């Protein structure tokens, strides 16, 4: 998720479309990974793509209307927690009690996290980036960074 948000903010700062190859270099991954990920975002209307010379990926919506939860859901709502129950069908009553408590705790924590993701927009992330950039004593040109990748 953080990698996708990183890519989206790079795209938001770009003057035009960015190719999968260019994004892959910036993210140190394979262009195929970028294309697969972006295809899911495109299906949800978050990004668009253009083919041919001058083509590439662009943001399709106003950053203020896209929440982190929108991005999370566009990625297929992957599991949030790596922790889980030791076994889903225990034969032990103690483990059943543990599973019930853990399931409830995970469900509550996930609900809180999803609520928070729904409150944060890409515009808020962009604003935070720009504020950090303004505070940085040595100027780093973000557009040069994405174009240098």
Automatic annotation (TrEMBL):
Keywords: DNA-binding. GO terms for cellular component: cytosol. Pfam families: Rrf2. InterPro entries: Tscrpt_reg_Rrf2, WH-like_DNA-bd_sf, WH_DNA-bd_sf. This is DNA-binding IscR family transcriptional regulator. It comes from Aurantimonas endophytica. GO terms for molecular function: DNA binding; DNA-binding transcription factor activity. PANTHER family: HTH-TYPE TRANSCRIPTIONAL REGULATOR YWGB-RELATED, WINGED HELIX-TURN-HELIX TRANSCRIPTIONAL REGULATOR, RRF2 FAMILY. It comes from the Bacteria.
């Amino acid at each position: 998720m953080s990698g996708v948000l990183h890519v989206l903010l790079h795209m938001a700062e770009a003057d035009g479309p960015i190719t999968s190859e260019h994004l892959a270099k910036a993210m140190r991954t394979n262009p195929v990974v970028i294309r697969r990920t972006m295809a899911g975002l495109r299906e949800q209307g978050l990004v668009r793509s253009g083919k041919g010379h001058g083509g590439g990926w662009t943001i399709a919506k106003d950053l203020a209307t896209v929440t982190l939860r929108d991005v999370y859901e566009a990625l297929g709502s992957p599991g949030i927690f790596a922790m889980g129950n030791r076994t889903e069908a225990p034969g032990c009553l103690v483990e059943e009690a543990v599973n019930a408590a853990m399931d409830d705790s995970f469900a509550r924590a996930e609900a809180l996290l999803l609520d928070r993701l729904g409150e944060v927009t890409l515009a808020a992330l962009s604003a935070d980036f720009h504020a950090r950039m303004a505070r940085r004593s040595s100027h780093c040109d973000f557009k040069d960074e994405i174009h240098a990748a």
